[in-house]
Amino acid sequence: MKRFFFFLLLGWLLLILQISLLKFLSLGVVIPNLVLLIVLYLGLFHQFRQGCALTFCLGYMMDLFSGGPPGLYIFLYLGSFSLAQLIREMFYLKSRLFQIIFILIISLGNDFFLFLLLWIFSSPVSLSSSLFKGIIFQGIYNTAVGPFLFLFLERVDQRFLENSLGESL
């Protein structure tokens, strides 16, 4: 239970960091999506029930802060989480190369799908090449930040597992 609340609090703090402080470190309008990276980590390395509940909470918080259509990020993040759960059975997940490729592919797909949903359900968005460049830069930025965040989250998970084993003995 401590682990659940830790990841929920960490996701909330990273969301606050993402929407406030990281705007100063952005590449134009591209900011790393730290919440998506946590969702991908949860999908790859956590059990379905706990990860799904955390993903729902993180998506809900993102919906509240983004001002977009309600449920948009819940839908996107649960889809990304579910895809990560499916893929984790097929590949060796500890490989950093796999994690980098996975983050890049899911980030690009997530941003493209976000754009598509906004285009369908919201005000018309122009299909410009700068938008697609933004999606590509967002994916690259997430890929650059992702392995460091994954390494941090792996160490945190290891501490929680060591503490739970120590308490059970």
Element layout with pairings:
Layout: H1 2-19, H2 34-45, H3 48-66, H4 72-87, H5 96-121, H6 129-168
Helix pairs in contact: 1-3, 2-3, 2-4, 2-6, 3-4, 4-5, 5-6
Task: Please give the CATH architecture.
Answer: Orthogonal Bundle
Q: Uncertain regions: pLDDT < 50 for 5+ in a row?
A: none
State the distance separating the first and last CA atoms.
18 Å
Sheet/helix structural class: mainly alpha
Q: What is the H/E string?
A: HHHHHH
The structural domain count equals 1
From the spread of the alpha carbons, the general shape counts as: globular
Taken as a percent bin, the fraction of beta residues is under 5%
Got a strand count? 0
- Major β-sheet, in short? none
Helical stretch tally? 6
Look up the CATH topology: Arp2/3 complex 21 kDa subunit ARPC3
Assigned CATH class: Mainly Alpha
Proportion in helices: over 70%
Radius of gyration over all CA atoms, rounded: 16 Å
Mean pLDDT reading: 84
Summarize this structure briefly.
The protein has 169 residues and is mostly helical. It is 78% helix and 0% strand.
